[in-house]
Amino acid sequence: MLVIDDLSASFRRYNGLFRQDFITRLSNITLTIQAGEIVALVGHSGAGKSLLAHAILGLLPANAIATGTVSFEGQLLNQHNLVEHRGRNIALLPQQTSYLDPTANVGALVRWAALRGGKPLEIKNRLNRVGLSDDVAQLFPHQLSGGMARRVLMAQATSGGAKLLIADEPTAGLDPANRDIVLKHLRAHADNGGAALLITHDLIPVLSYADRIAMLKDGQLCCVAPTSSFSGTGEMLASPYAKSLWRALPQNDFYAYA
Ligand SMILES: Nc1ncnc2c1ncn2[C@@H]1O[C@H](COP(=O)(O)OP(=O)(O)OP(=O)(O)O)[C@@H](O)[C@H]1O
Ligand code: NI
Description:
This is Nickel import system ATP-binding protein NikD. Belongs to the ABC transporter superfamily. By secondary structure, the protein is an alpha/beta fold. The protein has a single domain, classed as P-loop containing nucleotide triphosphate hydrolases (Rossmann fold, 3-Layer(aba) Sandwich), CATH 3.40.50. The longest helix has 16 residues. The radius of gyration is 19 Å and the shape is globular. The site of nickel (II) ion has 4 residues, from helix 1.
């Protein structure tokens, strides 16, 4: 469904009046996401996860320069066709809950997302599916807890019927029960023929839901492996970084990779 080919992104920096240089934050990313699949993108803070999400959607800031290509269902994405795809065929669940429009209540926000994708409104159903009650529709963003706001973003991202969901930290700040509701929702989306790029810091909870794990380290994909490789002592993992991260998890007794 999505093919990312040799994508790199750099930022222009000015050092002095006429001097500038470029600092590379994503290097030669090549990754495919098939229909029916959840690919979890994991990596440390600052590794470039959100940057990759924004690069796919053509939402990089003005001081960024991207090279490489991204195709969606065989079509090369560019700034023109992305305007049509965003919110319709490809939806973003942003990392920042502050992206919720403070002037509209939750019902209106979810309604707009559904209308944008030409889908039935079903506001209450959309909210219930992410563990929010009907009356949340009346609340404004400033009246939501952090976890509620995150689930409103999820309801918005899935209301327009987009085939590809790019979910940037959709479970941040959620308790385990609500985290599982959100991850199950993403799984159901993929099982119904959709696909998702699931960005997270937290590897363990997504192991039960994702098909593959892509690991970013300092802007480079150091490992793309089936979820089943993250088991035992990590002997199925080719990447030393992925192996050491896996072994260092508390669940794996903090073993250092030797
Ligand atoms: N507009 C920008 N200008 C310059 N550098 C930027 C800009 N946006 C992001 N960066 C840099 O790109 C790198 C990757 O940032 P990104 O937000 O993708 O990290 P992340 O992996 O999503 O981290 P986190 O898990 O904390 O959300 C960081 O070093 C960041 O400082
Ligand atoms: Ni991020």
